Structure formats: C-alpha cells, structure tokens
Fold these 2 entries.
Entry 1:
Amino acid sequence: MNPFDLLQETYLSLSANKVRSALTILGIVIGISSVIAMVSIGQGAKAQIQSSIEGLGSNLLTILPGVVQPGRGIVSSGRGSAQTLENKDLPVLDSIEGIESVSPELSRRFQITAGTGNNTNTTVNGVLPTYASVRNLTIAEGTFISESNIHSLGRQVVLGATVATDLFGDTPPLGKTIKINKTNFRIVGLLTKKGGAGFSGPDDMVIVPLTTMQKILAGVDYLSTISISVTDKNRMNEVRDAVSDALLTRHRVAEADFSIISQEDILGTLSQVVDTFTIFLASIAGISLVVGGIGIMNMMLTTVTERTREIGLRKAIGAKRRDINRQFLVEAVALTFIGGFLGVILGWLIAATVTYLGLIQTQVSLMSVLLAFGVSTAIGIIFGYYPAQRAARLNPIDALRYE
Amino acid sequence: MIEIKNITKTYRDGDISFQALDNVSFQIKDGEFVAIMGPSGSGKSTLMHILGALDTPTSGTYLLDGQDVSTLSDNELADIRQDKIGFVFQSFNLLPRTTVLRNVMLPLIYEGVRGEERKRRAEVALRAAGLDATHWSHLSNQLSGGQIQRVAIARALVNNPTLILADEPTGNLDSKTGEIVLSTFQKLNTEHGRTIVLITHEREVAEYAKRIIFIKDGTLVKQL
C-alpha cells in the first residue's frame, strides 16, 4: 500500500467516526497545549526575572548582613535582623582596587501619607548619591539625593514611579510634601519607570538621604545593604574576595558575618526556582498527555474490535500483517499528530493571552513546539502499537466469521 | 489448474482433536465451474479455506497453477490470495460507507496498482459483474442485496484471479436475486472463461455449476 493510499484509508476511517475521533484528539490537545503553555510561561518568567535583575545594575556585588545559607537562597538572609554592617565598614572598601563606587543602604518599610489623603506602605531606602549609578537608576524629573542633602540631614525624597502614582495619581508630585513616619519630606525627584515585577523593584520605593534615614527615621546606625559596582565584569570574583577579606579583618571574625551576592548568584538561584516550577507544572501537564494517550489506545482497541470483519476481508484479499499493522498505527499517529498540532496552537493562544493580559511575558520556543510534535507522535506510536499488533495478528478465518 | 492430493486437516484443541478433512483429492481445470456441496459440518468450509489460501492443510498437497501452496508462510499465502484468488462471501463484506468503485479497487491498493489503471480495471470488473454504471459512485450501504453481491463479485474479479471462490453467495439473498447472482457466475464462466468454485449446501444452487463435488464428514463422497 503506498503512502498516499495509506493516508486516504486513514482519513476515511477516522472521518467515519467523527465524534469519537474528535473526542480522542481533544485528550491530546489538552495535554499538549497545557505542556506548551506551562513551559512558555515558565520560560517567560525566567526571562523576565533575568532582565529585571540585570536592570537593577550589572557588575553589581551586594553585601548583606548575616549569612545566606546555601540552598535556601537569599530569601532567608536574615536581612534586617542581623546588624553586622555599619558605616564604619565603608572606609576599608575605598582602598580596594576595581571598585567603581560603593552604595551603602538602609531600608525599612514605613507608612507614607501625601497631602492628597492617599497613603501607601512601601520601602523607604536611605542612600548616598552613588546609589543612582550603582543601581542603574535614572531620574525622570527633578534631581536625585545630593551630597549636601546627606550632610544636612535633609528631608528630601525621591519617589519611585509606582509610589508616585499611588500617592498623587495624575497630579505632578514634584515639590509637594509627603509624611514618612510622621516626618515631612519634600519631593525633589521622580525615578524613571523601570517595569519588571517582584523582587523589590525600584518602582515601588522611595529614596531619602542615608543620614536622615539612620538618625531620624530608623534611629539606628547600621546598614541593611552595601552595593558595590565593579569596574570590569571580569574582575567580579577578584573584587569579591578582596571585599570579603577586608570586611573579615575589620569585623575581626574568622567566619563571615555577612554575605556577598553577585547578580549572577541571584539570577542562578531564581532561575533554578523557576525551572523547578516549570518542570513541576509541565510534569502535571504531561500526566494529562499520558491520559490522552490511554484514550487513543482505548479508541483504537474499540476500532479494531468493531472492524474485525473488515480486517478479515482485507487479509482475504491480500493484505499482509504489516499492511494491517501500518494502517492502524498510522491511524493512531494521525490522531495524536492532529492533536499535537491543535495543541500547539491552543497552547500558543493560552501563552499569548497570558502575555496580552500583562501577567507574564511568555515565550513559546521552537524547541517546545518541536518537542510537542515529537512527543505526540511518540504517544501515537506507543499507544497505537498494541492495538495495531492485535489487528495485524487476527486470523483471517476467525475475523471473517466474527459477529 | 487446481490439484488437491490427499488433503487432511485436523483441528486440535488441547487433548481433543477433530478431523475436518480426511484424505480428500480432486482436480479442477482452468475454466471449470464447480460446486462443492455438503451439509453443514461436512468440512466444506475448511476445504474452502484451504482452497482460498486462508489456511494450510495438516497433510497432503495443494497445487495452484503448479505451485505448492500447502506449505507457505503467512505472508506468502497473502501473496497467493492477492494474485490468484477472488473471494465472494455470504455476508458480502463490503467496506461500509465507501463507494462501490473504492470497494472494488481495494485489492488493487494492496497490489500496488497505480490510480488510473486501478480505476480502469475496477470498471471492467464492474461491467463483467453486471452492475450498472449509475451505481458506481454510490455508497455500499445505498445498494440492494443483489447489487451488493455483484459489487463483491466485481471485487473478486478485479485482480484477474486464477480462481473465484464463492462461499454460499446466495445465502443472504432472496431466491430471485439469488438467481441473478448465480447466472452472473454462469456468465462469467461461459463468456469470460473464469474458473469458479461455488460452496453451498443447497442442491438448486449447486445445479448452476457444470460439476458437483459432494463432501460429507470430511471425505469426498462422489462427483457428478
């Protein structure tokens, strides 16, 4: 039987039972589309995290108080509770070669009220003027915190884009006054919107002079973070070691009471988390694919039984075992292949909808599409094999007599 | 030319064995119209399966066009059926919801005959079987019993077989359409020189053949 005849036979027999074929295909469509959607959402989330972390400043080393435990990531850093970083740590960093600038920071969450009556609870970051360059921030309007603001314990504040909208809506906030923890601050600048969700994005915070933060708002003299930008990306490890040594010496400890994290560490940890979730979700979707495959097998077994006499006749007029085997295998693969094709389209639509709704910028990779086709074809072969074998092995005499 | 020599067939089911055919021998020459007649359980179905290369005998030889068919493998038997045998069944066995033409072309699909040639040969066979051209594009379930059986005859003819085997071809037809079908066989024999073996348990049906082989309890009783 030539391939064209084989396809024609397949078409005729599948279309003879349209509803049944469609339902069986639906099982595969659901399986494939959920795998495609899950993987594309996962890959999109990964890319988004990557770009938002890179947006926070490349060549960045972040020193955190306390010890980051391996495997638990930066989430459990004990940030805020450990108080091992102080202003006195800063001078020792100045002598290290390869450092472009150092940005000590102290951040706390405070309630902020505006004259409009709106209020919000957000991160207040006490920083030096170096913060803007280290963190890749740009000013949309006004100025950033200046050196003189630092010296005079100034009550100036720079707003992140989200906070500005939350507090003032459409009215321009520049020059207005807000209350942070009952202290008045004058708005001198607005940050450019950076986008990107989660992980303390720069849009959802306000910036005040570090001295003001330490002495007036928080009343402490330690730091929550020291960010260091390195002149050359290739010197990251070298600078990291030098910083670590200098701080160990100054703290007079053998075991580090601080952690140094590079963007790559954060990226690596988060990517790993996202990958794990993607695999987890894709496996659940994969289970539905297996269920779809069982549906295929079920349908094919029913078809073989129903068409026993036809198989007998085909054998009587000269069909060989391999002809029958091939015919039923191609039927099963046709079902899964059509299912795979529709599943890819549906999965892509789901991913596009997620992107359109602005939830996550999804990415449907060619790889996952090819994989989906491969997997659906393989499922057709695996779950079609047994029914096809059963059809091929039928004895023509018994098959012709079958009632 | 068909030559059956000392054919026996024994079915074995565990310890119980059943002798369906016992030392049967006969010859059928090319162009003959032979009826094999016997009551049910006489072994005529078994004989038909062996003649049709659907089954092989336990012992004895079956020469079809000089080739020994009795010892062939499954695949080789399929080739024999494809090239040399045309079946007409009591229950027609057409593909449901499929056009007459496609039903008749089915054996040619397995033989690997090309599209145009396939259609041409199917039309020749349908004409020989006496089915009007107006029915050729009809679906198999839109035909009457007599028309269906003539489609089945055309399907049996289409591969130019050495032998046409008809197993109770009138069993599911009323006597009038049965006569039409049987005279179709007669015509195929006299006008087209086809070799036909008709298996039946009815004397009136067997009378249409030029020679009758009687079989009973697995042995050949007499020939007329």
Entry 2:
Amino acid sequence: MHSSGSGSRADFWITDRDGPGAIVKEKGKGRGKGAMAETREEKRAPSIITVTELSKTYAGGFRALDSVNLDIRRGEIFALLGPNGAGKTTLISIICGIVNASSGQVRVGGHDIWREFRAARSLIGLVPQELTTDMFETVWATVNFSRGLFGKPADKALVERILRELSLWDKRNERIMALSGGMKRRVMIAKALSHEPAVLFLDEPTAGVDVSLRRDMWAMVRRLRENGVTIILTTHYIEEAEEMADRIGIIRGGRITLVEEKAALMEKLGKKQLTVQLQHPLADIPEALSDLPLTLSADGCALHYHFDSQGAQAGIAVLMRRLGEQGIEFVDLHSHQSSLEDIFVSLVQAREGAE
Amino acid sequence: MNFRAVSAIYRFEMARTFRTLLQSIASPVISTSLYFIVFGSAIGSRMVEIDGVSYGAFIVPGLIMLMLLTESISNASFGIFMPRYSGTIYEVLSAPVTATEVVIGYVGAAASKSVLLGLLVLITARLFVPFQIEHPFWMIAFLVLTAITFSLFGFIIGIWADGFEKLQIIPLMIVTPLAFLGGTFYSLSMLPPLWQTITLFNPVVYLVSGFRWSFYGQADVNIVLSFGMTLLFMLGCVAVIAWIFRTGYRLKS
C-alpha cells in the first residue's frame, strides 16, 4: 500500500559500526544518492562531540550501549529519540562523566573525556532528567555554586541575565523547595548554563512541564543555538524534536539505528494520505483504479490515497483525472501528513519486524 | 587545581552549617557542656585527682575528642551522603574537578566545623572547670589532625552508606563505644594489665592520650606513637578514598 514500503525505510537504518562519519548512510542507493550524501557531509559543521565504539555493560550484565558511534555537529540541535531503556540517559551520562564506560572513546571539543576531562567537562552543561536540586538552597546560591564548581569566577551580571531569561529573577532569594516543578526545572537549566557551556545536554527537559513553559523553553533553546551553543536533547515528546531539532538520532537496544537530518527524514519517510469523500458509496474499488495505492473505507464512502511526500503533486493530479474518467464524484478532500511521531513509531516497528 | 570549585564546595557546606546553627553548633556544645556539669563540677569534685590533675580538668581533652570524632564523622558523612541521596551528586561528578578537589572541599568544610566546635567546647569547658594548656601548638595540631582524619573517615561512611541507618550505624555502634573506652573518663593506668594491653588496640586511645598530653604534659602512650597512629589512620582513609574515586564505588555505575 505504501509506495516506498518498508524496504525503502530499511535503507535508512544505519549500523552503528558504520563509524562516526556515517551521519547519512544510504545503503543500497545508487551513485547519485551517494553523491548527495557526500555533499551534505562536506557542508556539515565540524564535530563537537565524537563518540566511537562506545559500550556500556552494567554490573548486573545489562548491556545499555553497544558499540555506539555518533558525531554531534557544532551549533546544531540534535534530538536523541528512543523508547524507555534504549540507552539515551546512559549515553549522556557517560559523555558527562557520571557513568563509567565499559569501552570506547568520547571526545568533546577534541578533548578525550577521560584523559582531558577538565577541558572536556568545562564545555558541557547538563540538565538531567530528574528534578535533583538542593531543596534548602536559594535559587541565587545554587546557580552561583554551579558556576564556581566549573571553575568560573563569580559573575553577578551573567547570573542575573540567566535568571531573568528563565523568569527566575523574582524567585532568586526563594528556597528551591518553595518552587513549583516547572520553576525547579528552570533552576536546573540555569545551573547548567551558569558556566556558559558550549554544549548543553537536555535530558527530557520538558517532562512534567506545562505547555506554556514548554514553549518558553523551546524559545530559549533556539536562542542558545543562535548564540552557538550545541544542544543535545532527549525527549519522549516527539513534537519537541519535530519543533526544534536539526537532526534526529534514534537509539534502540543500546544501538544508534538512525541518524538523519530532520527535514530529510520527514521528506523521505513522511507519508501523506489524501481522503476523498465520495458523493455515492462504492462497493469496491473499480478495476480501472486497481493500479493506484487506494483503499476504500468500510462504509464505502471514502477513498484513501497513500503517497509519499516526494510524489505528492503528480500523484494527486493523476488520481483526480482517473476519478473523473471513471465518473466518480466527490464532495470533499482532505490530506494528512505523517508526523515525526508516526515516522518514529513506524521505524521502531520496522526494526522490530526485521528482528 | 580548580580552587574555585574547592571554594564552591567548601562554602556550600559551611553555608549548610550556618543555616542550621542550632543543630550544628549549639546542640553539640550544650550536650558536651552537660558532661562538664555532671562529671566535672558535680561528681568530679568528689573524685580523686588523676596524675595530679583534678578529675574535672582530666576529662576535658577526652570529651573534646569525643565530640570532635562524632561531629567530624557526622558532618562529613552527611555532607557527601545527601547529594548522593538526593541525586545532586551528578553536578559534582560532571564538573571539571578531581577527586582530590572534591575531598578537600567536603572534608575541609567538615573538619573546619569540627575544629570550630572543638574550640567552642574548649571555651565553654573553661566556664565550668579550671585547666591549663601546656603545649598549645600541639593541642591545635592534634585538634586539626583528628578533625581531618575523622572527616575523611566520615566521607568514606557517607559514600558507603546506602541509607540513613547505615549512615548512623558506625558512629553509634563503633565510634562512640571506642571513644568511651578510649580513656576519655579514666587513665589507662587505672585498668588491670590485661585490659591495658587490649585497650591499646583502640585507635581512640592514641588520640585522647596525645590530646591530653598537649594539655597537661601527661600521656598514657608515647606522644610520638599517638601522633604516628593518628597519621597512619589518616593515610589509611586517604587510600580508601583514592580507591573509591578510582573505581567509582557507589559514585558511578
């Protein structure tokens, strides 16, 4: 029913053994596509994080990461998606120095995170998933503590700017325990930004945050990116990745299974469906239309036409002409485009099917 | 050395102390003062002198040492346990700081508070009991060394403990009995010979004896041995902490 089919999707699964350079790897494609990929490689910004053959097996034997290779480009917003337990937080935790790796290498800004940990960690700000803050501290004290911890001299003006940016200035003298969950989340972001990191990890930043605050955070993330900060985002809200990310990475079972430009991913894997509401119900799809990717609704009152984004214009024109030739009259048309969420679900399901 | 990070941790911990003045400062000073009132002024006046020192004055070094041990352990263990318990340890682990800097920050703050408390108790004791300090330099040296050593020990407990019960069990079940049996309230010479020998396996004996020597010039064990044993215990704690950070024990999975 889908013109591109699951086989086409599988072309975009990359094995994480393809190495850090395999940002866009299109298996089974012809020379032309390969050349396009090379062009994108040439244009891309230099890497700020390089993860090579990174593996992690916990003491209990659980293999959380399995030979992960990943490049994060300087100045991009990278969204790491994956089901629960896929390895997102473990990957971030290793890069930030919170969890020990079993094997592999990670470089941040060209610095090995173990041998040159001071230089590497100085570049990183982390907003963890859990709301872990010093409940008895004031907002002002805890943000200044974070700045000092990263070896930066006190800078009241900068901390004030960060607090104002996050609408925390009025709360600066309040104890964190007195703040709402959303405000606590802002405090954690302020702490992460206090030492002016070049890379910001946001691990589920908007979990439990209301829509208004979520929009504020997205705006803030965009402003950070405009200022040259690289953002790595993990989220369950695929809407969030769709809204903000430049590139999408999908991790599953401890392996990076896909890394792709968001726009390209949606263009290539995004499906469209045109629904034609018929004036008179049909018992079956006419034989003359059987070559088209059509399905008939159960009540026979609607035809669903499935097509991919790339062939949209030509496909619809052909459908309209063919319906006219068959004397099929319709009263309404509406189309639906698959979201990143649909793509994510279909990719994960395709992978499960392949296994 | 990331001095700003050390300073940040140190100031954070000290701020916690001053935020809870009643619990952190007043409580140990009052409870130790009660010992001076009961054993020093009330019962002490009916006790015979020990080695030419009134009983009230005799117990001053031991009581200060008892308070110093328990407070050092409590401060340092709580200081590192709470970030682990609440999850805020992530920030320290992801910061550009070495294990040495983390330890200096946490242990330095715990030891500072203990020394401050020790001096406060010393001043308070003078209100109830007359005493002199023959070797003030060594008194301060023992005070600081003991505070650092047992803060290091407390730091280890704070990392080892995976709950509040474990946090309390070693100070309550081991350290306090050792302190009471370590010559705080009596001279070792008052014990039968066998118990004198057994008591020498108690590390607190060396602390109390050395500290008392700095006050009155009299000690149950040689002063060099006292100082050496304290140093040895401190080096042992440093070695354990070095292992903890090298392996990530209870800090990193």
